[in-house]
Every structure is written in structure tokens, then in C-alpha cells.
Amino acid sequence: MPTTRVAGAEKSAPAGGLRAKLTAFEAERLQPRRDAEQARGAAVAAAGVVASLEALERQETAGILARIREAAKANGGIENVLSEMRPGGRFEDLRKEFNTVLSHDEGFAAAYEKATVAVAGYAEARAALPTAAQSKNDPNLARLQTLDHEIAEVARTLPGRQDGKSALDELVETGKEAVQRLFATVQQAFSRDAHLRGPSPSPGLGR
């Protein structure tokens, strides 16, 4: 019977294929929104870095960070000063001062920890961005790359907990893949270009 044939045809229709296409369509339609949300997440993480660095500056009552920056201006850049902030180094006294402030000033120590954690958090947020959101056609890519360099620059000028190292050195050495992937290349660029820049003022943290 005609009615029976139509019913049978409807029962055997491959609904699964249509459902899969609909699911793919919905995912494609919603992906730009997800990408935008993740990009906003990276921007929020960057704002957190700036806020934490500004808080670190407010906690810095002993003036040690300012003295380190002044030494960098007069001695060929921050790399030279930080590398000599070690026992027997030219700036051993600055290292001792920094260690004293870090170990005895609880407010500074907490702000320092928060700042370095925020920088690592930014790297994690950047790594979470899908490849499509980081394509050359994305209008936000240039701004994100600028933030990468600005944040790495500040971490590069901040002394690390270990003698002779910067906070950036220590972040790259943590073994966290996201941090290494984001900042290792930037760090290499800093080292490669250091001889071309010559003595220059180091940026104020959070400024």
C-alpha cells in the first residue's frame, strides 16, 4: 500500500546524518563567540598582571627596585645588573638588599608572589586561545603580541628569587609548557637585541 511504503521510508531515513550536520553547523556558528570569550580572558589576565605589578610598586617601601633600575641606566642595561646580583658579583649588595626586603617585608613578598603568578597566568590564558583566534587575520593578534612583549619586558627587569636571574628567567625555567612557549622566544629576542639597544632606562613596573 502507498501509505505503508511512505511510513517505511520515513522510518529508514538516515536521521543521524542530518543530526550530525546540524551539530556541526551549531558548533561552527558558536565558535567565533567562544574564541572572543577566550580572547577576552587573555585580556583580563593581562589586566591582572598590570594591577599586580602596580600593587608591587606600592608595597615597595625600601626603594630597592628603583635602585636596581638606576643601576641599569648607568651600567649598560638590566641584564648586566641582574647577572651581577650574586655573591662576588659587582652588584652583590643590591642582591642582599633585595633578599632582605623579600624575606622581611611580608607585604612586598606577597605582592611579588602575586605578580609572578599573574604573569604565569597570562601565559596560560594565551595558550588557551585556539589557533584560529591567533591567525594573522585576527585584528586582536597584534595587540596580544604587544602585551606578550610588554609583560615579558617587565618580568625581565624584575629580579628573580635566585641570584643572577630575573623573574622572567625563572618563569621560563618552571617547566610549564605554556610559559615556555610564550616567553622563551621573547626572551631570546631580548638577548639577541640587547647589544643593539645599549644602555637604556628600564621600564617602571606597571607603568
Give an account of the 3D structure:
With 207 residues, this protein is mainly α. 73% of the residues lie in helices and 0% in strands. It is built from 9 helices and no strands. The termini are far apart. The C terminus is likely disordered.
Which structural class do you get from the secondary structure elements?
mainly alpha
Total DSSP E strands: 0
Please describe the biggest sheet, giving its number of strands, its sense, and whether it closes into a barrel: none
Strand residue content: under 5%
- Element-level helix/strand string: HHHHHHHHH
Give the structure's gist in a few sentences.
73% of the residues lie in helices and 0% in strands. The chain is an all-alpha fold and 207 residues long.
Helix-strand layout with pairing:
Blueprint: H1 2-11, H2 15-59, H3 64-74, H4 78-83, H5 92-104, H6 106-127, H7 141-157, H8 167-172, H9 177-197
Helix pairs in contact: 2-6, 3-5, 5-6, 6-7, 6-9, 7-9
Characteristics of this structure?
mainly alpha; 207 residues; disordered C terminus; single chain
